[in-house]
Write a structure and sequence with these properties.
five-stranded antiparallel sheet, Pdz3 Domain, 4 helices, alpha+beta, about 50% helix, 5 strands, rod-shaped, 2 domains, single chain, about 10% strand
């Protein structure tokens, strides 16, 4: 996303460049202050004239004036630069936040569309007896059944429908579709007599 000025988005290297520039300005300011120190420590506000109002002869006036002028200019530059650094960082963070929100929204939309494409379940497996045909086929507790042979959410009335399908399919593989952990899973189930009760368990 470009900022309102139509300029390109700020990058991390832009910020690093600004910080390098800030360091350079700080070094220049320090050098100017050291120059003033070297001129009998005149600093920024010491008078440049003697008691009689004549220019001081013990210091290099030109150098002092130039250094003072440079310090004022550099400090203004420094202030402006710090504002730029702050704005650049703000933009970077805002963009990161925006990107994160967009990623989250996309992930959510994807999850929603997956949910929408999953068929409706009409029954839930609440128990699977170990060693039973259901257990052998890989059915698991909490599997939501969306298709059981010819039975689906559209024609399912009660569990008797499933019992009828099971009795007619003894010894023959049945196609069973379940939703497990948000995904569609196909299970091949063959109803048959076993040690336990019923043809499925």
């Amino acid at each position: 996303m470009a900022d309102p000025g139509g300029a390109r988005p700020v990058t991390v290297s832009d910020v690093q460049q600004l910080v390098r520039r800030k360091d350079e300005i700080e070094a220049q300011i320090k050098a100017c202050y050291e120059l003033l120190e070297g001129q009998k420590g005149v600093g920024m506000h010491e008078p440049l004239v003697d008691a009689e109002g004549f220019p001081r002869a013990d210091i290099d006036l030109y150098q002092v004036r130039t250094a003072r002028h440079n310090i004022i200019c550099l400090q203004n530059d420094h202030k402006a630069l710090m504002k730029q650094v702050e704005e650049a960082l703000h933009q970077l963070h805002a963009r990161e936040k925006e990107k994160h929100a967009k990623d989250e929204a996309e992930a959510l939309a994807e999850a929603m569309s997956q949910n929408q494409s999953l068929p409706q379940a009409f029954a839930k497996v609440n128990a699977v007896t170990p060693g039973s045909p259901a257990s052998v086929s890989g059915l698991q507790v909490d599997d939501e059944i969306v298709e059981f042979g010819s039975v689906n959410a559209n024609n399912f009335q009660n569990l008797q429908n499933i019992a009828t399908v099971v009795q007619h399919s003894e010894g023959r593989p049945l196609s069973v579709t379940v939703i497990r952990g948000g995904r569609r899973v196909h299970v091949g189930l063959t109803p048959k007599r076993w040690a336990g009760k019923g043809l499925l368990g």
